[in-house]
Specification:
By secondary structure, the chain is mostly helical. It has a domain at 12-104 and 159-255. The chain contains eleven helices and no strands. Helix 4 (104-122) packs antiparallel against helix 5. The chain is globular. The two termini are 23 Å apart.
């Protein structure tokens, strides 16, 4: 880990800035690593989901339920990738998957525990948003901070406390972004098939059938971006609460004194 090679400048940001930075992070920092992870993890998930629809004739609600579960699980790899890319110049797919496997048991337990909390929230009027916020950062708590499944759930809840408004805005933004990915991919795929290739809609239509191959592709294409935005919000919250920007600046100065002639920190963004 090289503190002088941080990918972004640590400073408090508004939610809108985090979503904007998430796009640049996904394209410029995640880049090839994200693309490789997507091919290894999310492309097979896309094919499995659509295969169950096309071959096994699963109804679209069941397909979307399976897709949601797979996305919830597999986004953990992108959380780890984002964390390692924060300071490491070179990260391989093997590095990320190895860390995922090591934390898989606790991660699964944390996901199940938080989803039980969310399900209980559905029983209470207007309870769902708050219970979702309670478990929003279980990925970071378990995969990055090293907590166990139940401890990670509690840590996620404590982390969200005091910033519920910001977390709820984050959740709303993530939902909108996911919808845009799905609708855009469905529309682009439909135009290509129906008007360019003159094949009609052989792979379904989101508006008419409730789903399509393009919509599934867009759904899974959104996962790296959504995981990156949530990670960046996590970094932002730690910066606000724990003064990570000051700690980072101090440690960078100390390391610069010990290693004169090193370069200034790199950043995924321009400006201060």
């Amino acid at each position: 880990m090289n503190l002088q090679q941080a990918r972004i400048i640590l400073r408090p940001r508004k939610t809108a800035e985090t979503f904007d930075l998430g796009l640049r992070w996904t394209a410029r920092v995640g880049g090839r690593l994200y693309l490789k992870l997507w091919g290894v993890l999310l492309l097979p998930a896309t094919l499995v989901c659509f295969g169950l629809r096309a071959v096994a004739q699963w109804p679209w609600p069941s397909v979307w339920l399976l897709a949601s579960g797979l996305a919830m699980l597999l986004q953990g790899a992108f959380t780890i990738a984002a964390s390692r890319l924060m300071f490491e110049p070179e990260v391989t797919v093997g590095d990320v998957l190895t860390q995922c496997v090591r934390r898989l048991g606790a991660y699964l337990l944390g996901l199940v525990a938080t989803r039980v909390v969310v399900a209980l929230g559905l029983l209470v009027v207007l309870g769902f948003p708050w219970t979702w916020a309670y478990g929003a950062f279980v990925h970071e708590a378990v995969l990055l901070e090293g907590h166990g499944g139940f401890a990670g759930t509690q840590r996620s809840g404590k982390f969200a406390s005091g910033q519920y408004s910001a977390v709820l805005w984050l959740g709303a933004g993530l939902l909108v972004a996911l919808g845009l990915f799905v609708v855009a991919a469905d529309q682009v795929g439909g135009v290509m098939l129906e008007f360019v290739l003159q094949l009609g809609r052989p792979f379904g239509s989101l508006s008419e059938d409730g789903g399509s191959a393009g919509a599934l592709l867009g759904f899974f294409a959104a996962v790296p971006y959504l995981a990156s935005v949530r990670f960046l919000h996590y970094i932002d919250a730690r910066t606000r609460r724990d003064g990570w920007d000051l700690q980072f600046a101090f440690l960078s100065l100390v390391m610069a004194d010990r290693a004169p002639g090193t370069r200034a920190p790199r950043s995924a963004e321009k400006g201060p």
